[in-house]
User: What shape does this take?
Amino acid sequence: MNTLSFKTFSATPSDIEKKWVVVDAEGQVLGRVASTIAAILRGKDKPEFTPHMDTGNNVIVINAEKVVLTGNKTSQKEYFRYTGFPGGERFKTVEEALEKDPTFLVMNAVKGMLPKNKLGRKLLTNLRVYAGPVHPHAAQKPDNA
Assistant: This one.
């Protein structure tokens, strides 16, 4: 009988190497680019992935205002929030959201694809979203994704 012992790898803080990655959202479908970004933030593209640790990279998203939504979502999809007061339901369409804050769509889509706990909130701090093609993170020497 062959007795092989396999150990499950679990990353420690000293094993984690964080890099900076640039994602260009111009002309890409919102949900597809958001799932790619969420996987990079989570670290699922690395062999050292550990579910309970922040093993992912820092992500810079440029051209967020040029993201594409399929179908009639730009006029029909609504975002809901509640003020906390009676009668305080507020709705805004994608058009209104883009007009007010072009980065909202990408941030909100990625946030919905991350875990709903302390780790998810920590991972969201590794995401930087910019409406245009310019970002102030040249010193980090980011790679293109």
